[in-house]
């Protein structure tokens, strides 16, 4: 297995070198291709990268567009879509490798942890893990990975302003194909919850998902999600 890690970014210059350093520490000797896709015309995040071995590209703004651009540029046969503020477990790359060597699965994701203290965050984590196991629809902050040939055959992410990760997973499920939820947790930043208010952000996210499942378009829902 060869792995390409695709990191879509927008104004993440303060975080990007730490994210790259963590990945390099897990896979020395450039064993993993790292692709950073900047959605900003000013390329602030790309200019901040200190590692010359990282592949930096630009695309139009929008996580789906950026991830598709990264996938098109990727040389690996497995794609990992990783948010800049999400940290893999220490053996995360090995876990992905073992999963992708199992022909029963076309992709997968991890359980979720949030890098904040407080009982509400623990409830959010447990709810997210239970939901993804029951529905087989993990979200993007759970570090989704997929075989590149399969992703290409699926024509990648639909270029939606929101819910592109849910849409991809629902299409995989509709084909009768399987993903694996790795029981180890990725750790994602709680900065959005802190900025918007934990209760407000959580309720807003639940409402958006419910409305999406009821047929509301991602274009309308994106107005609720800054």
Helix content: 40-55%
CATH fold category name: Spore Coat Polysaccharide Biosynthesis Protein SpsA, Chain A
Q: Please state the structural category.
A: alpha/beta
Query: What is the mean pLDDT?
Result: 92
Q: Based on Cα principal axes, name the global outline.
A: globular
Largest beta sheet: what is the strand line-up? 3-2-1-4-7-6-8-5
- Detail the poorly predicted runs: none
What is the H/E string? Answer: EHEHEHEEHEHEHHEHHH
Task: Please identify the top-level CATH class.
Answer: Alpha Beta
Query: What is the CA-atom radius of gyration, in angstroms?
Result: 17 Å
Summarize the main sheet: 8 strands, mixed
Concise summary:
With 226 residues, the protein is α/β, with parallel strands linked by helices.
Explain what this protein looks like in three dimensions:
The chain is of the alpha/beta class. The chain has one domain (3-189): Alpha-Beta Complex (Spore Coat Polysaccharide Biosynthesis Protein SpsA, Chain A). The chain is built from 10 helices and 8 strands. An 8-stranded mixed sheet has the order 3-2-1-4-7-6-8-5, sandwiched between helices. Helix 2 links the parallel strand 2 and strand 3 (55-58). The radius of gyration is 17 Å and the shape is globular.
């Amino acid at each position: 297995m060869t792995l390409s890690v695709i990191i879509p970014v927008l104004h993440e210059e303060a975080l990007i070198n730490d994210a790259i350093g963590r990945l390099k520490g897990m896979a020395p000797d450039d064993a993993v291709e790292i692709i950073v896709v900047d959605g900003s015309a000013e390329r602030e995040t790309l200019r901040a990268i200190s590692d010359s071995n990282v592949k930096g590209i630009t695309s139009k703004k929008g996580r789906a567009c950026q991830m598709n651009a990264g996938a098109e540029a990727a040389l690996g046969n497995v794609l990992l879509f990783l948010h800049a503020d999400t940290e893999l477990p220490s053996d995360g790359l090995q876990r992905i490798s073992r999963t992708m060597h199992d022909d029963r699965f076309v992709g997968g994701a991890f359980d979720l942890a949030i890098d904040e203290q407080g009982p509400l965050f623990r409830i959010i984590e447990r709810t997210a893990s239970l939901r993804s196991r029951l529905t087989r629809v993990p979200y993007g902050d759970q570090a989704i990975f997929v075989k590149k040939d399969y992703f290409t055959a699926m024509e990648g992410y639909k270029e939606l302003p929101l819910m592109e990760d849910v849409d991809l997973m629902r299409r995989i499920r509709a084909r009768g194909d399987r993903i694996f939820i790795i029981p180890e947790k990725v750790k994602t930043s709680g900065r959005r919850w802190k900025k918007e208010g934990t209760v407000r952000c959580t309720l807003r996210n639940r409402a958006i998902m419910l409305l999406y499942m009821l047929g509301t378009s991602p274009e309308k829902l994106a107005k609720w999600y800054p």
